[in-house]
Amino acid sequence: MPSTRSAGLFSPRDLGSRDNALNLLRLLLAFLVFYSHADILAGTGNGYEVAGQHLGSWGVVGFFAISGFLITGSRMRADAGPYLINRVTRIFPGFLFSLVFVAFVMAPAAHLIEKGTLDGFFGAAPTPGSYVYSNILLHISTYNIGTTLATVPYPGAWNGSLWSLYYEFWCYIIIGVFLSWRFIRSHVWPTALLFLVSVAMHAGIDRIGPYVDDNSEFALLIFMLPYFLGGALMYQLRERLPMRPWTALIAIAGLAGIAALAGLAACSSPGADDGGSTSHTVTQSPQEVASYWTDDRMASAEPARMPEEP
Questions:
Q1: Which residue has the higher pLDDT, 242 or 173?
Q2: Which of 76, 157, 189, 201 could bridge across to 304 with cysteines, CB 3.0–4.6 Å?
Q3: Residue 278: which pLDDT band, with cuts at 50, 70 and 90?
Q4: What are the pLDDT digits (tens) for 112-142?
Q5: pTM for the full predicted model
């Protein structure tokens, strides 16, 4: 009679099984993002970098890779209409609640703590309503609300981590359209080819930039896309990728080698020592920030941009 005992940690299994530890990976990636953000937002440091990128950046691209794996599975199981509805209903309810909660609960509370009153809060630009309306379609164009958060080490930015949802949804659209053809869904090589094209664009973004007016949003999408498509490719290869201790060791060694090469390239690239880093350096005290950000300056300020573009 077959045993019902669960497989051990290193028991042979395929990546396509549900026993694949993706939730553990998500937890570890979330910790990287949390740590990286906390260090910068608290003004205690510039964040820890690996291969020219903050730990939080590596956490985000890791999330994109896992998302590519899972979302491709969702697209393979559903037609275009249900797939799109599932993606919208998965993201927008929580996203809209977050916008409203920040605008009408957290920001008023911050204003009350900072000023001792709510007077002027709802009329100071950008207003809470403007914050919600400006960001409602995932494209985060407004990070600040009124004059709040003027005295913190990273001033004028509410819930800056929402920026990645816009690019993730673009990845949903790209893979959703790409897998609309039965031939592509039943063959691996088209996805592999698209992945390689995205890697080439990622590597050559400096050459592509002038043809899109050096659009920073396009550059950031191209920065993220290979990771998502890598996850998509892994999904299509899931039954052919056995999980074994030796494959795990090869993957870890390969990752370490790629990270080391990327670090050497980042250190030797122009501007590496004069602004080429993605670090955010805290050079002012909260008191200096507060004295600079008067009500008039806050009202005329451009929205904060997060994160810094790669």
A1: 173
A2: 157
A3: very low
A4: 998 889 998 998 899 999 999 999 999 999 9
A5: 0.75
Name 287's Cβ contacts closer than 8 Å, sequence gap at least 6: 151
